[in-house]
Amino acid sequence: MFKFANNFNCCKAVHCRNFGVLNSQDYIHKSTRLGYLSTACKSCGSNPPWVNNELVANIIKEKLEIHFSAKLNHCPKCSSYFFFEKDTRLHKYGFTSSGRQRQQCAACGSVFTKANFKKNKQLQAVLSTIVNKQETREAIKTTGLSPKSYYFYLHQLSLILANFSRINEEKIIERKYLGLHSEGKVLSLKHKRGVYSLISSEINSGYILLQSHNLTRTKLHTEDNYQAHSSTIVVSHDLESTENMLVDRYTQNMKRKHFEQLLVGELKALTKCSLIYPDKLAYVHFQLLNAFTRKSQKYDHFIEHESTLRAGALMASLKEIKKANANVYFFVPLAKAGEHINGKKIGWWNDRWYSNEFAAYCPVTSAGKKDTAVPLKETNDVERFYSYLDRNINKGINSFNVINEVFEIQRVLFNYGELTEQQSRANRIGITDKIYTPESLLDEALHSINA
Ligand SMILES: [Zn+2]
Ligand SMILES: [Zn+2]
């Protein structure tokens, strides 16, 4: 099993000798000198906010189950996670009395029967309630199912589509080079409920790899429970020059209590859930994103210009950054091509910024080096998925399981079915040549799982 980082309390200044070093002699742990808990690094003078490691570890566990587990047709004891664990070998092992094929796991000897998912009208009916973004109560009524059966088939549907999607992703994500793009978005639901969500895509195709949100069922201490009403989201004002726009963004950031204190306005949790703060979700999300980067030789990660995302992204790629195999960039999309900036130092941390016709960039990990070929050309792909989700989701959702299942179903429907210039994201990333409707996608997923 892949090991996630479990201690985030270290210096995060890339050019400090303590960058990513745990328990350095130079640290003052839980320093309160600046009015918030931090790890004070005496070597570079930085004060990264203190991270509750236990909380992050618990949420990683919870989200790992949601996004990468529930492998169908594999040994129930071994290799439970896509990407993070290799599949064990299976042997045919006779039949059950009802004639179904049994399998034995070569690693642990467990004998089990492969699941058999049949195409049935219940699955199709539940799928069409999702496609028609029906409120849950209305959806149950339309399908004629009991509530219990409706939730059962919704769960099955999300399992089938998630398995189909992850199996295909596993085949193609072993690459020499991978470019990733991540942004945070607030998705509002009815009755002031909502989630802060982190979305990551592959840069050339716009294929959405991972979308995680800040809802949890983990018990939280009061201070970890998101209760804020104000917003510290940094916005780009349309100023005369790109440089002024960036300076203004840094100024907005400096108004925060500390630079990772991203507040996203009033959000209420769904029933029987809590919300964590966006900075904690960032540590979790980027650790999980290692699923996709660990097999590529080199990768670039373009993150929204938000200091809350910086720390999480750096911590997730620490080893690869130190080996010069990974780079992290800030970026801000540009609405109009202005004058170019070329290595200008901007902001409190003297970040060095460049721009091209699409965006302004800041190489967080390789500052100082002139950056000529920045591979992120399409800066709207995350925004597109976000607005797709916003348009296509039933805003009355009030259950943890349902929101997880619907998000995953929508991620797959978007990747396989939404077309830009007659191509889906799955076409562009090279998973398939076909174009799918929701119905034909379900058929194909069932076919591949039962094969
Ligand atoms: Zn330092
Ligand atoms: Zn096994």
Overview of this protein structure:
This protein is an alpha+beta fold. It has a domain of 206 residues. Helix content is 34%, strand content 19%. The protein has twelve helices and 15 strands. The protein has an eight-stranded mixed beta sheet, with helices on both faces. It has a three-stranded antiparallel beta sheet with strand order 3-4-5, with no helix packed on it. A two-stranded antiparallel ribbon has the order 1-2. Bound molecules: zinc ion (2 copies).
Q: What's the number of helices?
A: 12
Q: Helix coverage percent of residues?
A: 25-40%
Distance between the termini: 27 Å
Largest sheet: 8 strands, mixed
Spatial order of strands in the largest sheet = 8-7-6-11-12-15-14-13
Summarize the SSE layout with pairings.
Blueprint: E1 27-31, E2 38-41, H1 53-68, E3 90-95, E4 101-105, E5 111-113, H2 121-131, H3 136-143, H4 147-172, E6 177-188, E7 194-202, E8 208-213, E9 215-216, H5 242-254, E10 274-275, H6 278-293, E11 298-304, H7 307-316, H8 318-322, E12 326-333, E13 342-346, E14 351-355, E15 359-363, H9 381-392, H10 400-417, H11 425-429, H12 438-450
Parallel strand pairs: 6-11, 11-12
Antiparallel strand pairs: 1-2, 3-4, 4-5, 6-7, 7-8, 9-10, 12-15, 13-14, 14-15
Provide a quick synopsis of the model.
This protein has 451 residues and is of the alpha+beta class. It has a domain at 177-382. The protein has helices at 53-68, 121-131, 136-143, 147-172, 242-254, 278-293, 307-316, 318-322, 381-392, 400-417, 425-429, 438-450; strands at 27-31, 38-41, 90-95, 101-105, 111-113, 177-188, 194-202, 208-213, 215-216, 274-275, 298-304, 326-333, 342-346, 351-355, 359-363.
